[in-house]
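Journal club prep — side note

Before the paper discussion, L.F. wants everyone to see what a predicted structure for a comparable chain looks like in token form. Sequence:
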Amino acid sequence: MSAPQLPTMGKWSTGICGCFEDCSNCWVTCVCPCLTFASNAEIVDEGRTSAFTAGRNYLVLLTFLPVLGATLYGCTYRTKLRRHFELPEQPCGPCGDCYVHHLCCFCALCQEHRELKNRHMDPAGGWRKAYETIMNPNGAAPIPEPGMARN
């Protein structure tokens, strides 16, 4: 059995308005966007930023500086995601990532979540699980490292 095919580098696997391709994430994002942002950010930052920290920061910015703070914070992670997978910017103007997060942060967060999930880096499991999936894509038992062994 072969591993599922990954989406093509340089191309989004779903569109910005494909929210209903993952209805459960769409619902969570509409009710509490900081949860989706938090799990996405942990994966995009490769575990350097915890989901708790990212979610808390996003919630504070969304509450007190929604137009400027949350938009800039969200677009920063979208830009990191795009660069990592060589994805094109949405044709929304010179600052596409910021426009997308400003005009429809829910759609942007859902698209980013789907992109990570489609590339086998499911944000729902956190960075540790995504890392294990990347390092061991077939789900085989890990090969022990050579070294001292118990007798």
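L.F.'s comment for the group: DSSP finds seven helices and no strands in the chain. Keep this in mind when we get to the figures.
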